[in-house]
Design a protein that fits this description.
It is a single-pass membrane protein. The chain crosses the membrane at residues 6-27. TPR repeats lie at residues 37-70. There is one protein chain. Helices cover 68% and strands 1% of the residues. It has helices at 6-23, 27-34, 39-49, 53-66, 71-83, 87-99, 105-122, 125-133, 141-154, 158-170, 177-193, 197-210, 216-227, 231-244, 249-263, 266-279, 283-295, 305-313, 317-325, 335-346; strands spanning 352-353, 360-361. The radius of gyration is 31 Å and the shape is elongated. It is mainly α. It has a two-stranded antiparallel ribbon. The structure holds zinc ion (ZN). Zinc ion is lined by residues 354, 356-357, 359, 368, 370-371, 373, 376.
Length: 385
């Protein structure tokens, strides 16, 4: 007969369960009770040894019906099945536990939670949602709400996600104000995509009020104002962003240049950008400074000197590549090839990287598509990390 590793996985918790069961009886009692209850266990064990796992489960279910003390054995079996990816079996075990009338409240909640985990792992989100909702008011409420939040975020059901996050915020299970603001921003973007700009703006203002310290609502609001032909309002919003969340300014630097140029406030924007660049020599702020200098006839010739100044502070391949692009080389005929090679080498350095899971992307994400963490992308490029 071939040796199967799964025996060990099945056998260990079974041995624990049986050991625990046996320890509850002294020998004299055992002799008396042996005649009544545990036959089903040995039947189950026999099936297991013969690799008839379905029949073994049936035997254990029968054992549970005649002896309520086997709850732990059931939990062990259920968890075991889930870990092995046998979700149908795990669900069957936990549903059977739940159908029992004599289960204590604590065990009932535990079984309900285990059942929700079975559905989650199996990817049956509708059934997981239903099972998780039944855990409201139980000892597993906090965990269940977090799992529900993940389900609603994954299905982009922002109103339901907001409802759960607000309840957790009110119950002091954490500060969910930034997340609530993100949900409002997501809904605003969906409205804006359908051309409902005033409604989108109202939601962004609500997001701003919910989390005034968070940068996203101001950046999205400035974009929307610019789109509605209000560059002055957009410029003001970005000035407020520089005040409230300066670390996020690199994300809005190109928009700042655009709105400042449109409203004739380039000198003000230049001063603002240079001030923040001194504190934080960001590549995006550098690009914005160079772009504003290039747009001005008086400074167009010296704009690229900013790259050299940056290189004195940081050894940056990105800045070196950009400076070199405007240079005249002795062997000018080879410049395109050299430039292409450098740009290719510098490209991965201009990505954004999730601080939680390391996922890299060409664009900045407010929620990581890899690990679903919010605000895990710094507003800096890989080269600056
Ligand atoms: Zn991530």
């Amino acid at each position: 007969m071939e040796f199967d590793l799964s025996w060990i996985f099945l056998g260990l918790p079974l041995a624990f369960g049986l050991g625990w069961f046996a320890s509850r009886f002294d020998l004299r009692q055992m002799r008396e009770e042996n005649r009544r209850a545990p036959k089903a266990y040995f039947k189950g064990l026999n099936y297991l040894l013969n690799e008839q796992q379905d029949q073994a489960i049936d035997a254990f279910i029968e054992a549970v019906q005649s002896d309520p003390d086997t709850t732990e054995l059931h939990f062990a079996l259920g968890n075991l099945f889930r870990r092995r990816g046998e979700y149908n079996r795990a669900v069957r075990v936990h549903e059977h536990l739940l159908s029992r009338g004599d289960l204590s409240r604590a065990d009932r909640e535990r079984a309900q939670h285990a059942l929700a985990l079975d559905f989650l792992k199996a990817g049956l989100l509708d059934r997981a949602e239903d099972a998780l909702r039944r855990l409201e008011g139980s000892a597993f409420e906090g965990q269940a709400r977090m799992a529900l939040l993940a389900i609603y975020e994954r299905s982009r059901d922002w109103p339901q996600a907001s409802d759960i996050a607000r309840r957790m915020h009110d119950a002091q299970q954490g500060d969910f104000s930034t997340r609530l603001a993100h949900y409002l921003c997501e809904q605003a973007l969906a409205l804006a995509a359908h051309g409902e700009l005033p409604a989108a703006q109202a939601l962004l203002e609500q997001a701003l009020a919910t989390a005034p310290q968070a940068p996203r609502a101001r950046i999205e609001l400035a974009r929307l104002q610019q789109r509605q032909g209000q560059p002055e309002a957009a410029f003001d919003t970005l000035q407020a962003l520089a005040q409230a969340a300066p670390a996020a300014l690199p994300l809005a630097a190109p928009l700042l240049v655009e709105t400042a140029t449109a409203t004739g406030q380039a000198p003000l924007a230049q001063a603002l950008l240079q001030h923040h660049y001194e504190d934080m020599p960001s590549l995006d702020l550098l690009e914005a400074v160079v772009a504003l200098e290039a747009a001005n006839a008086d400074t167009a010739a010296v704009g690229r000197e900013w790259y050299v100044r940056h290189l004195e502070r940081e050894p940056s391949l990105v800045a070196a590549t950009k400076w070199l692009a405007g240079e005249t080389l002795t062997h000018e005929q080879f410049h395109p090839q050299i430039q292409r090679a450098l740009e290719q080498a510098a490209k991965p350095l201009t990505r954004y990287r999730c601080a939680a899971c390391g996922f890299e992307a060409r664009q900045h994400f407010w929620q990581c598509p890899g690990c679903q963490t919010w605000d895990s992308y710094p507003a800096r490029r890989v080269e600056e990390l």
